[in-house]
Structure formats: structure tokens, C-alpha cells
Amino acid sequence: MLSCFEARRGTRVLLKSLDMGLCMDFLNWLEPDMSIQVLTCLDDPTDLVRISSVSRSWRHFVIENGLCKKLCLRLFPQLSRVAQVIEINNPDTKAEVGSSNSKELETLEREHRVYAFLACGFTSFNVGDSIKRALSASSTDNFPEESIRNTLEPRDVVGRRASYWSSKGQSDPAVPEVLIYKLVSDFVVINEINIQPFKAYFQLGEPIYSAKAVRFRFGHAKSPMDVESDPMGESFPDKKFIWTYTSQVFPMTQENILQTFKLPEPVLCIGGFLQIELLGRVQRQEMDGLFYICVSHVQAKGKSLSPAFGVEIHEPSGQFVLKNNIQAKGNTQPSLPDNDSDVNADLDLERDIRDMLPFVNMLQGNGVDFDEFEWNDVEEGMDEEFVEEGMDEEFVV
């Protein structure tokens, strides 16, 4: 069985072999199933972009097998609910005429373009605070003085008054609280959530009203118009949302510091809503003997893929249309890496090619004597052949 490590190494050789003068089509050497197995082990979007730019036949192979789409689905399973991919403001878009085969090819090519840019966007877009505004809290002790809006205020003190959100008091420490936020767009990749419990410096002993643990959910509103038009109050019905991702439970420490809760993998939030579930209470207020949870600051670190990408969610199926705005600011198609930027990388790949040629023969079932293989003949002829004969016309980018 071919390991992903071997597959990635093999693919690096495939990418650079043409640059170094080996005018051979490795996709013709391998069976299609083996080629797909090798290429689907890639986890760097730029590798697939480079592969699809090597030649017409390689581009067709990548498009026909939907390799960019498969990579995006591996990175973000939430994309499995995509029902359709469309391009907006694309001057090259043609009217859908012709045979069913030509329409299918146009669909595959469109999906390739969109998913290729999307995959590169996951790794290249800037990371920043991704919360647009606070929506609601399951309870608020003194509204609006202790509103959830205060959790987005970077200062600890505003107008000589401590800035924080406070829940209502509960005699049962197991009663949870929920905070809901609107993210900066409907299509955001979130890496981590940061929360700082509030320290009541004005109370005896300066108690810290943290939760025992925290859990996160991402999703969309059943009716975005209803959510956006409703004024923020003390609570917001949870039934107005559909949560499509739920994290593990993270323990929270009773410390007045900005605590980082890093998600195991970056999560694609489709719909633009974040729910923070605060589980368990640890601090009782001396004045009334009730348990409270108080939060000073909340941050969600991630990447907004808007305006280049947007979604249109269809209910009740939960499927959505993925939209790529070609003319959106900052929406540029991914470019190939500079092949001459790292001389050492080329030297390493020369060694890789020596190793991979017998490996490819093995995949074909041919026996190879590693000790007798004429590496020097390959090494001496590569540069000369590349300079004098050039590349086969089929392999011109």
C-alpha cells in the first residue's frame, strides 16, 4: 500500500521532473487509479495548482477527477453540503449550450477554478479577529450595563466603569450560559476562540467569575432577516439557529487572562454565527450566595473569505450554493511558485528523482536492481537534453 509520505514525495518529483529536463509523462507510466491515489494524498493546494499547469493532459486529469474539490472536502468537511458552484462577474462565462458532455465539462472546469482558488485562500488569506458584533446572551444580570456587547470592548475599564458581561445568578452551579455572535461574513475559517473571565476587583477578595468549561458551535440562522432585524435584548431564542459544527469541551481556568481555545483543525463556518456555551459555574457571589459567570473579552481568530466567496443557504435541506465573485477586490487566481527561488530545493529533488525512478518501475511491477541502476547516465543527460531539445510541446505550461 502506498503511504501518503511516499505519495507526497513522489508528487514533488513529478512536479520538478519537467523543470529538470525529464521529458516523460508520469501519468502515462502509472495506472489512473494509482495516479489518483498519489495526487489525493497532497495537502498543499499549490501543488495541485502547479500540477494542473504542467500540461493539457495533466490539467484535464486534475479537472476530470475533481482533485481540487476533493482536497477542499478533506480540509473542510462542511463543504460536503455544497449543492452548486457558481461564478459571479466572470466575463468569460459562456451560455450553457451544446451537448450534455460539453455542459458536464464546463461544470467540472468551473468547479476546478473555484475550488482551486478556495483551497489556496484557506492558506493565504490574513488571520484576524472575525467577530462583527455581539447578538445575544442567554441571560444578563443588569442590562445594558453588563451587556454582551462589552465583551467586544478591548478596554477593561470604560468611563470609570468595569467593562464585562454578567449572567444572572443561579443557585445551581451546573446551569450553563450561552453567548451568540455574528461573524464578519457568512464564509469564515475559524482557528481559535479567546475568552477572558472577569475579575471583580471591586468585590472583597477580587473573585474571578469563570466557567468550568466551554464549548463552541458554528452555524447559520434559519431566517437571516429575522435575526438581523431584531434588536439585541437579554436573550435570543436558540431555535432560530441551525448549528452545523460542535467542538469538544475545553476546560477553562479560573484566571483573569485571555485564554486561548485552539480548535483541533480550522473550521469553516458557513452562515456566519458563533455560539459560545459556558458550562458550569465556579464562583459564588458573597452578597447573595448565587453563582455567576462573567466575561471580559471574547475574540474569534480566523480568515474571512468574503467578498471573494459567499453562500446562499437553502432550507430545510441545509445545502447551499457556493458563489465565487471573480471581480471582488483581492480575488486573484492562485499563481505558481517561483521555481528558481530555492537552489537547495532543486538539489534535493535531483536526489528524489534518482530514488523515485525505480520506485515508479516497482509500481508497474517491474523488478529493479538498485545497485546496478545507471543513475549517472540520467544525471549527466538531464541538463543537456533540457537545453538542447527543450520540452515536448505537450508539456508547455
UniProtKB/TrEMBL annotation:
Superkingdom of origin: Eukaryota
SUPFAM superfamilies with a match to the protein in the record: F-box domain
Sections of the chain in a coiled coil: none
A Pfam family annotated for this UniProt entry: F-box-like
Name listed for the protein in its UniProt record: Uncharacterized protein
Gene source species: Prunus persica (Peach)
